[in-house]
UniProtKB/TrEMBL annotation:
Pathway: Carbohydrate metabolism; galactose metabolism
Originating organism: Tateyamaria omphalii
Domain NAD-dependent epimerase/dehydratase: 4-252
Molecular function terms, GO-annotated: UDP-glucose 4-epimerase activity
Cofactor(s) the record lists: NAD(+)
Assembly mode: Homodimer.
Similarity section: Belongs to the NAD(P)-dependent epimerase/dehydratase family.
Catalytic activity: UDP-alpha-D-glucose = UDP-alpha-D-galactose
UniProt entry tagged with the keyword NAD: yes
Keywords from the UniProt entry: Carbohydrate metabolism, Isomerase, NAD
Designated name of the protein: UDP-glucose 4-epimerase
Cell cycle listed as a keyword: no
Gene Ontology biological process: galactose catabolic process via UDP-galactose, Leloir pathway
Length: 327
């Protein structure tokens, strides 16, 4: 049995990663405090309930399961909230990650896959980003993730911690088998909020800002299917285990969609009207975040197969109608 410690394995992306690891013949050991995750989502391996700032709990998990690697998803990830409560983001994301990294090094577990974000780039004048683009985050969430990237580099230099950093663009969709899906409480992300509004589960969606410097005035994002995203993580793990060394990969599709375009696609996929109102900008939002995936495709052999907007919305809609966790 080859174990991989998956922090945040009870969350949206982490639970899909656990399934992909299980399908790859590995055992995902979820370490999660259930602050934003769901025990119902832990279906593919053992579960340790614990907090990343609890070094003793981490040491016990490393000792019990002897994982060959860490996949680190656990984090607070809401841009808007990070602007209102930055201390919580720095403490949870940075102190938690630092504690995890120190525990991994102490246990001799030196392969580390980290979920970072395109929010580390900040606003960049409408360019398509690549891994060498400058990182100037404009919100506390992005800043906290960039800081963790720096910590990983320092621990590589000092202790030989090998890492693959994935900078995600906007993750969407759900497991096509319906075993896991996206479920945040409260929900803040565009596609699930829109599906809620379509289904009459909440009031109209508010479009955050219609005066951005984009063709239709709304923000542009690069959406990637969660299943494609976690496939890249399995490839990233293999990359490290093959001894290929630390590397950063952007995970996007190179196609940007505005909020209005996502609304239009959702209307087409669900064949229902989308109740929405135009509203003010949300603090911390970048105008446009789009990346190619040239490096991940060329070096990891990553081939996204489900990352069209139609498929992502279709999979999210199916999960929205049939799947749920017990709140
Ligand atoms: N958005 C919006 N209304 C909402 C939620 C999001 O207009 O209720 C917009 C948001 O301003 C951004 C895009 O949708 O341009 C994606 O936001 P989300 O929160 O899903 O992801 P983020 O880009 O912040 O990681």
């Amino acid at each position: 049995m080859v174990n991989v410690l998956v922090t945040g394995g009870a969350g949206y992306i982490g639970s899909h990663a656990c399934k992909a690891l299980r399908d790859a013949g590995l055992v995902p050991v979820t370490f999660d405090n259930l602050e934003t995750g769901w025990s119902d989502a832990v279906k593919f391996g053992p579960f340790v309930r614990g907090d990343l700032t609890d070094r003793a709990a981490l040491d016990a998990a490393f000792a019990e399961f002897e994982p060959v690697a860490v996949m680190h998803f656990a984090a607070l990830s809401q841009v808007g909230e990070s602007m209102q409560d930055p201390g919580r983001y720095w403490r949870n994301n940075v102190v938690g990650s630092l504690t995890l990294i120190e525990a991994a090094v102490a246990a001799g577990c030196l392969d580390f896959v980290f979920s970072s974000t395109c929010a580390t780039y900040g606003d960049q004048d409408n360019v398509v980003l690549d891994e060498n683009s400058a990182q100037h985050p404009i919100n506390a969430y992005g800043a906290s993730k960039r800081a963790i990237e720096d910590i990983l580099r320092d621990f590589e230099a000092a202790c030989g911690l090998r890492h693959v950093i994935f900078r995600y663009f906007n993750v969407a969709g759900a497991d096509p088998d319906g075993e896991v899906g996206e479920f945040h409480q409260p929900e803040t992300h565009l596609i699930p909020l829109m599906l809620d509004a379509i289904a009459g589960k909440r009031a109209a969606l508010t479009v955050f800002g219609t005066d951005y410097d984009t063709p239709d005035g709304t923000c542009i994002r690069d959406y990637v299917h969660v299943c494609d995203l976690v496939d890249a993580h399995v490839l990233g793990l293999k990359w490290l285990q093959d001894g290929k060394g630390s590397r950063v990969f952007n995970l996007g599709t190179g196609s940007g969609f505005s909020v209005r375009e996502v609304i239009d696609h959702s209307r087409a996929v669900t064949n229902q009207s989308v109740p929405y109102v135009d509203g003010a900008r949300r603090p911390g939002d970048c105008t446009k975040l789009v990346s190619g995936s040239t490096r991940a495709e060329a070096e990891l052999g990553w081939t996204p197969t489900r990352s069209t907007l139609e498929t992502m919305i279709k999979d999210a809609w199916r999960w929205h109608q049939t799947g749920h966790y017990n709140a």
